[in-house]
Specification:
Elements: H1 17-30, H2 43-50, H3 54-66, E1 70-73, E2 77-80, E3 89-92, H4 95-100, E4 107-117, H5 120-126, E5 133-143, E6 146-156, H6 157-160, H7 173-180, E7 187-196, H8 199-205, E8 212-221, E9 227-236, E10 244-247
Antiparallel strand pairs: 1-2, 3-10, 4-5, 5-6, 6-9, 7-8, 8-9
Helix pairs in contact: 1-3, 2-3
């Protein structure tokens, strides 16, 4: 297979395979690695590249097609869309602002720090070889004494060394990046998904196993679209409200 599609076995057992595949392809499209009009390998080839069955590949392609990133042509295959839709401008009034505050609302509790080999999705984002060490900080955000969000922040090892551990129990990671480390945040990409809590998430949020949670995956970029941070956030479905203001880019945007 050519260099556009290297073998990328999926190793993260906690994120659905179709979601990981869609995320990897989406970022390659957004970064221009996969150009408009380029033909994708067929489902069998993609399944081999990602080390999965055809079903999650089919689900990932369907998701990207519904988002307007792919075009399927009967008898010809699947192609990167020629006229990619420009994303609408979002004013985030929920997760980003909450985690960018200086700890004035609610509290943060620092749970643990560990060094992990980067799975393919993180290696792709951080532009490092798969298996290279990344650092994960696990924390719980509480409001009025009740846990509301379980978050894991991932940084490259070199950047993680610069983080003051005392700050992890006080401030959101965006605030730490910008204020403590003087790294301006230029772009944030988020995806949201409804899930049910597994045993770890349920324990951290004091809810029942299989209770509804909102899963938010966040990619943070700095100058020159340099990757800064990746986070996984699990919000209690009964205590958190997320809202956005959409600014239309013109007629037909809806």
């Amino acid at each position: 297979m050519n260099g556009h599609f290297p073998e990328t076995p999926l190793t993260d057992q906690f994120i659905p395979y179709y979601f990981q595949i869609a995320g990897l392809l989406r970022r390659r499209i957004e970064l221009g690695d996969l150009a408009p009009g380029m033909k994708l390998p067929n489902e069998n080839e993609l399944a081999h590249l990602f080390g999965v069955s055809k079903m999650p590949v089919r689900q990932a392609l369907a998701l990207l097609a519904s988002d307007g990133l792919l075009r399927r042509r009967r008898g010809q295959g699947t192609f990167i869309a020629e006229n990619l839709k420009k994303p609408k401008t979002l004013k985030l009034t929920g997760i980003i602002e909450d985690f960018a505050t200086q700890g004035m609302e609610g509290t943060l509790r620092f749970l643990a720090e560990d060094a992990l080999p980067a799975p393919p999705q993180l290696a792709e984002f951080f532009q490092i070889p798969p298996g290279e060490t990344v650092v994960r900080f696990r924390r719980v955000r509480a409001v009025e004494g009740a846990p509301i969000c379980y978050v894991s922040n991932y940084l490259r090892a070199g950047l993680a060394e610069r983080v003051r551990r005392a700050d992890l129990g006080k401030f959101g990671m965006l605030w730490i990046l910008e204020k403590r480390l003087a790294l301006p945040v230029r772009h944030v990409q988020q995806t949201l998904e409804a899930r049910t809590a597994d045993s770890e998430v349920a324990g951290r949020l004091s809810i029942e196993i299989t209770a509804p949670v909102m899963y938010v995956e966040t990619f943070v970029y700095g100058d020159g679209r340099a990757p800064l941070e990746f986070s996984q956030n699990f919000f209690r479905g009964d205590r958190y409200k997320y809202s956005v203001d959409l600014t239309s880019g013109g007629r037909g945007a809806g």
